[in-house]
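> @MW can you paste both from yesterday?
MW: sure, first one:
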Amino acid sequence: MARSIRIQSAGAYYHVMARGNRREDIFHADDDRRFFLHTLGQACEMTGWRVQAWVLMSNHYHLFLQTPEPNLVAGMSWLQNTLTRRYNVRHRKWGRLFGDRYKAVVVEGEDRYHYQTLMDYIHLNPVRARMIRPKAGQSVLDYPWSSVAGGYALPAAKRAKWLDAGAGLKAFNLADTAAGRRGMVERLDKRAVSEETKSCGVPPQSEEVDARASHLRRGWYWGTQGFGEAIRKLGRKLLKQAAPVSRAYQKHELVREHGERQAREWLVRGLKAGGMKSSALSKVKGSDSRKVLLADLLWRRTVVSQEWLAEKLEMKSAANVSQQLRRLDVKEALKKVPEELKTFLAEADATRQ
């Protein structure tokens, strides 16, 4: 059976959710959660994603994010695969970490109602799961693994750069000040106390709503019916470009193109800055500081694989790339490369900050 197409566009908002395989836990301890957030941060650095809200539960996670570039598929492929590999290494396991295909609901993020309701739905997830009990005096701050305690309640200097807390606060007419951040928490706590636990944060559903619209628990878009029509038109256009849509779709050149575009551009510029010609790369050792620093930039800041790096930089194999990156001492390596390459690396690393 063919898979449904992923709607990708510049500036799009998504509600992304993934569960553990067979609904088993994907977080066993706080270190697993910290590791997830570290990996998510790397994905955001590579893709430019701006996360609006997140929550980590026992066997699943929710993300509300915006993709300034149309790269949801490439970024999620890297994120889910990297999380699986790292989880298996940490826990000495093998096989799948996540169950079915991750869910990505397209969101009308510029509409205040749909933005606000999704934010609250995510942040009040621990209340619905009875992991905190507001009616017994607990606050949403008592659950540390959401973007409330882990971001919105913190001053800008103490929260992750990839969390777009300024936009989230602004959506509720709150400033990014101590009073504004306190107002965000107090508003959520009031909802948690006043609403039924099982439906806390879930908006009421109109009988007239488009059945294809998400109700945050189902459906494929969250927005007005006009937004839904626009998304369907975009979907039909993408289907014509990439038909037939199947499991091979994610490997289609149109999907890979955007994920690799930045990497290819930086590769060309980096080779020139390092005084290396692509036609003679095989004569340059895989351990050469110029190659390794360039591989490090592309690995950290784009979604290309280590196999891709090995091929384009002539570094023998993905295993060799991985080994060289683990051994890399950036300060020492920078002492061995031309000034032009140092400047290029600094400028490239400064983008999307």
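MW: second:
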Amino acid sequence: MDFSAWMDGLQKRTENSLDRLLPPAGVAPQRLHQAMRYAALGGGKRVRPLLCHAAGELSGADPDRLDIAAAAVELIHVYSLVHDDLPCMDDDVLRRGKPTCHVEFDEATAMLVGDALQALAFQLLAEHPLAGDAKRQLDMLRLLAQAAGSRGMAGGQAIDLAAVGQPLSLAELEFMHIHKTGALIRAAVLLGAACGESLPEAHLAGLDRYAKIAGLLFQVVDDILDSESDTATLGKTAGKDAAQNKPTYVSLLGLAQAKDKAAELRGAAHEALASFGDKSRRLGELTDFIVSRSF
């Protein structure tokens, strides 16, 4: 199966899983459940679920288990988007080509949508058998909680908000994005691998290195897209970071050097996968896909 067919199949599989796992729109409280489904369904490239499934191939994981882990990570991601778009954060009106959740519904409902999606993510990890023993499954819960919390995504967002209008060094910018974007991408990769057989420590270290590099790569390309693409292409407001005077890889390095940085990270990601051989084919293809979104 070529990469495009593989990706298309898994995107549809993820959509079906989310549709099945989210509360039905007709169940009380209906408005909240309608808004949760509005935010989570029918949009996005599902990069994190794709990474989860691709990493699961390294450990021979059951695809049904990977569906649950991938859905949990995606629900955390969607909750973060709903909250990021609120007027108290980035104050955006467009997400995935349609009105943001607080615009389509209201701010209070959008806040509750984020809360409920986050809770559902952990409910899924807790109630479905995903690992061979209880300790590993608890470790998976801890991994996602840390990735979403103050030492991960939420902490990175706090740093991002504090950095508006402030000059950051490259090290400070990378520290912010290791948390804001990278932590959840790393969780997607490691959770996928954890759904299968235990990997040797050396392989786990290589996979962890890959996941951290992929997280930074995703953000560098995102910054390039924000500066080069239009709103229709992105499905969200283009140029928002520059308009809000946020530090980005493009504002710090310039567009050409940001692209050089992406190429450097792309090479490092492939190098981190070298020990896995053909089993890491999909992770390698996803790395190239992340870059090809822009150039």
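> thanks! Residues 201-228 form the longest helix (28 residues).
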